[in-house]
Specification:
single chain, 6 helices, muscle protein
Length: 109
Amino acid sequence: MAFAGFLSDTDIKAALAGCSAADSFSYKTFFKACGLASKSADELKKAFAIIDQDNSAYIEGEELKLFLQNFAAGARALTDKETKAFLAAGDSDGDGKIGVDEFTALVKA
């Protein structure tokens, strides 16, 4: 998948297993478990580019909903509740989307 060679397959599997049930996703737990929380700012910019599927320079709600599928093709979509909470946590300027600096701050939070 998109993060192969960037993050450990074992860490990704563990992170996904930790949020396999609906409404169990915690971005803080996931970022730590998959290894993103320990990455440098430059590495997080690369991760952001992977998640920003439409290359708009922002991660919008639909991209957040499918967030886990960036890590494994068969991963579940986030629920509407999880997507809204994830967006609210990352959208520090209130524009309804997450920019690269907001993403970096969210991962490191």
